Amino acid sequence: MPRTLKFAILAMIIGLVVVVSFALLSATSKGGSSDPIEKLATGSLAKLDTSRKGAVISQAKFEGPDGREASLSDFRGKTTLVNFWATWCGPCEREMPSLAALETQKGGDNFQVIAISVDATEDKDYAIQRLEELTGGVLDFYFAPPEKWEVVYDSSARGFPTTVIYDEEGVEIARLAGEADWNSYEAAALVDAITN
């Protein structure tokens, strides 16, 4: 085989390896995204979704910790992480301690975690007790029983747990369907990025 043909074949193989490697890296990396929030969708937050970015916060009413009516728009002025959960949902209960840890670490004037129970009315007392047990009292109890699920529908929560993050103006930044570790480096970095 002529020497030039050997070099040509070798060059083609090297070129093919480079192209395949680049394609695989692009497919598995968030690095190509221009959205800074999408770039943070790694590790425990790999399922972070920004497809509804810009959606406006629901005005629907639900029950606040004091038993009075509340709405998500009451929290305008601070970035809010809204978690829809239920006691009958194993993944919801598993992630609740990490949500409490995030509130302890990052909560304050600029950021708050809001956990809204979607349990049935007759299970309200049990849900209050479980939230206390799971979070050590760090998170306040908000309640949207099935007859007040308008906030759930307005927020496009398709299952539980669903977490939706809104900016201080009440506009959606991102969401995550399913369980996540909110007591993670990725979650802390996300909160820092959206509150600074």
From TrEMBL:
Subcellular location: Cell envelope
Keyword Transmembrane helix attributed: yes
Alphabetical list of InterPro entries matching this protein: Redoxin (IPR013740), Thioredoxin-like_sf (IPR036249), Thioredoxin_CS (IPR017937), Thioredoxin_domain (IPR013766), Thioredoxin_ResA/DsbE_sf (IPR050553)
CDD domains, A to Z: TlpA_like_family
Transmembrane residue ranges: 7-27
Keywords on record: Cytochrome c-type biogenesis, Membrane, Redox-active center, Transmembrane, Transmembrane helix
Keyword Nucleus in record: no
Start and end residues of each Thioredoxin domain: 51-196
PANTHER family documented for this protein: THIOL:DISULFIDE INTERCHANGE PROTEIN DSBE, THIOREDOXIN-LIKE PROTEIN HI_1115
Protein name: Thioredoxin
Organism: Henriciella pelagia
Lineage, top ranks: Bacteria, Pseudomonadati, Pseudomonadota, Alphaproteobacteria, Hyphomonadales
